[in-house]
Amino acid sequence: MTGMRKAVVITAVVLLVAGIGVLGLYQLTNSRTYQLFGELVHRVETQEKVVALTLDDGPTDLAPEVLRGLAELRAPATFYLNGNDLAARPELGKQIRAAGHELGNHSYSHQRMALVGPEFVRREVEDTDRELRAAGQDGEITFRPPFGKKLWTLPSYLAEHDRVTVMWDVEPDSGVDHDAATIVRNTLEQTRPGSIILMHVMYPGRARSRAAIPGIVTGLREQGYRFVTVSELLKLRK
Ligand SMILES: [Zn+2]
């Protein structure tokens, strides 16, 4: 091989390896089931027909409507809330907690947390915890990364502070804009004992998700499922 051709081949190999590395890191930031440090739970291995409904973002003006729906169903949920929304509407956090639901930490400002520094991570986690405590959340506070994104600093901070990262294994309203009946059907098909369902109900554009909740709760109960909060579900892990 001439020196020139050798250089071209070496450059191609280096670019290929770098590309695979970047792709691998990107997939790692999005993984629902794995992170580099600390404990990540996306479902709990159990024979018991228990399931946790988790509702991300907010609180917003739609929180009271969501609470009324859950109260009619007598179903507990876990709300992963953002610190800045809680700080703006502290009474909504208190209402959610007073209705018997669990509050989780979904960061302060809902930014992607794959490539962020340790000080940013500390503030996002701790400032949100402070709002959650003020809303009445006692006991363990689990963390759910915004957009599910994490890489190095976030998992290492959570691991250092004995915090559990909670992801999900059923996400019926992510991606495609399904109607309520499809959201219900997909959820009933995909839920297994120990599943964690992720839904978004806090935005005006999410009427279909809000409308799907009664069908999900009654449908899963007909299959023998019992709804629990995330911390109740975590007690069942081995
Ligand atoms: Zn979110």
TrEMBL record:
PANTHER family: GLYCOSYL TRANSFERASE-RELATED, POLYSACCHARIDE DEACETYLASE YHEN-RELATED
Keywords: Membrane, Transmembrane, Transmembrane helix
Name this protein carries in UniProt: Polysaccharide deacetylase family protein
SUPFAM superfamilies noted in UniProt: Glycoside hydrolase/deacetylase
Pfam families reported in the protein's UniProt record: Polysacc_deac_1
Transmembrane helix is among the record's keywords: yes
Residue intervals passing through the bilayer: 7-26
Keyword Membrane recorded: yes
InterPro entries xref list: Glyco_hydro/deAcase_b/a-brl, NODB_dom, Polysacc_deacetylase_ArnD
Ranges where the NodB homology domain occurs: 49-228
Coiled coil: none
Annotated source species: Allokutzneria multivorans
Domain of life: Bacteria
